[in-house]
Amino acid sequence: MDKIVIALNLIIDYIDTDEIVNEKDITDYLQNTGFDDYEIRQTLSILNFGVYDSPKAMRIFTVPEKNKITEKALQYLQKLNMAGILDFITLDEIIDKSLESSDQKIDVEQIKQIALYTLLEKKSYIFKNDYERDEEDYYIQ
After folding, report:
1. Listed residue (101, 100, 94, 97) closest to 78, CA to CA
2. Which residues neighbour 25 within 8 Å (Cβ) at sequence distance 6 or greater?
3. pTM, whole model, 2 decimals?
């Protein structure tokens, strides 16, 4: 799990520097960074590639969101959403956590951390539910 966290952190920074990002770009980047195929597959499973298509619409941010989150951080969130890394539900979760956080305005670096933790929480929740479902399938009375 530690390597997946590192990979996610690298991806979040990589997306910040690249204009158009897709699954192949990220896969190539991780391979060049030294991750093996298993670690890359695990990391990509967290990012939802192939689960849904890029949205046909952009999210409109509210005044309180614009007051709490910097413009660059909002643009970064839109970029993650448009790249297919964040679905609208996860995007809203990140925004909600940002609004609930400190009294200071949230910048790009803070948004990256909130996004990373939100994606990891989501993966942990999915893994837990899949594991519990598997246990039920094999339960013998």
Report:
1. 94
2. 18
3. 0.74
